[in-house]
Design a protein that fits this description.
The structure is a single chain. By secondary structure, the protein is of the alpha+beta class. Helices cover about 40% and strands about 15% of the residues. The chain has twelve helices and ten strands. A hairpin with a 5-residue loop joins strand 6 and strand 7.
Length: about 325
């Protein structure tokens, strides 16, 4: 018995988008060799040698008895901290979304892809959001424009790109690029873009929403403070729309400066379970408030605070009057 399958033809726009992704989401053989070499050197650093038995144990156990179900995030290893298991087969979008709703995320510089659930999770509760005076002043200079979901392909490619003064070791491989782009098509992944006065992409980042939870995946900056501006606009809207937190995975200087705090795994998983049950904002996002108003966000204030918006409007009115004088 013969079977015949009809293949759906792509529209010209879809074909162009697919071609653009294939052009941006790729590695040359020399890039792959560099990534594997740097990953091996990183794994053999004296400070990381203690994690090798944990990796070996996971590899051996999963080789003997592969477990295709998602691992229990609460049973992650202490060393390497947060290793929960291996990803088997091709990672699909439904599995990815289910993992995030359980507090897991995928990451590996080289195969095999692994599931992680760190003992301490860097998370922002929006009442703790901090906009420094210098950052607020820069935002009010009208040098930058922020958009959402305008150019996910360029943002992901830039996040995976080389950073000045750093070895190029990235976990954002072509496999992960295509997977997050697929999640973007389904309305779950979102990007923010920061454009300078010349219309150039000065910075940006992307993350994934699951219910009313959000995880920031990566960000990049080509100009000082550009990524901070974009992240501030993103956090404002997440808070305004009712999201419970922004998960930054692991603490870093940017997260610390913006008010992220380390949260024990158990407390984080409790928040994830609650947030993932709530209906999220699926689909394309748009920036709803002006950057001037957002720049005046203060710790403990709600983005929808009428007083905050009123003060911003009054300040703009006074500047316009001085300009007309």
């Amino acid at each position: 018995m013969a079977y015949h399958a009809d293949h759906m033809a792509l529209s010209p726009a879809q074909g162009a988008a697919a071609s653009r992704r294939n052009a941006l989401f790729r590695e040359r053989p020399i890039d792959i060799a560099e990534r594997w070499t740097l990953a091996a050197a990183r794994a053999l650093k004296p400070s990381r040698l203690g994690a090798l038995p944990g990796f070996a144990k996971v590899y051996f156990e999963e080789w003997l008895s592969p477990n295709y179900a998602l691992p229990d995030p609460e049973r992650a290893f202490d060393n390497p901290p947060g290793l929960a298991g291996l990803v088997h087969g091709d990672l699909t979008l439904p599995t990815l979304m289910s993992a995030y709703s359980r507090g897991l995320y995928p990451l590996a510089h080289v195969a095999p892809l692994k599931w992680w659930s760190p003992p301490q999770r860097s998370a922002l509760l929006f009442a703790d959001m901090h906009v420094s005076k210098n950052l607020g002043k820069t935002m009010r200079q009208n040098r930058y424009t922020v958009t959402f979901d305008r150019d996910i392909e360029r943002v992901i490619a830039a996040c995976a790109g080389r950073r000045k003064g750093r070895w190029h070791l990235t976990w954002i491989t072509p496999q992960m690029m295509h997977l997050y782009a697929q999640a973007y098509d389904a309305g779950h992944v979102h990007s923010y873009e920061v454009w300078n006065e010349r219309g150039e992409l000065a910075g940006g980042g992307y993350g994934i929403g699951y219910g009313m939870g959000f995880t920031s995946e990566s960000q990049f900056t080509n100009e000082s403070n550009a990524a901070r501006i974009g992240m501030t606009v993103l956090n404002w809207h997440l808070a305004k729309w009712g999201y419970r937190f922004n998960d930054g995975k692991l603490m870093g200087p940017l997260w610390q400066a913006m008010g992220f705090h380390d949260m024990p795994r158990a407390a984080f998983l409790t928040r994830v379970a609650e947030a993932s049950r709530a209906p999220g904002k699926v689909g394309r996002w748009q920036v709803e408030d002006d950057i001037d108003t957002i720049s005046r966000w203060r710790r403990g204030e709600r983005p929808t605070s009428p007083l905050l918006v009123e003060h911003a409007v009054q300040d703009r009115s006074m500047r316009d009057q001085r300009a007309d004088a």
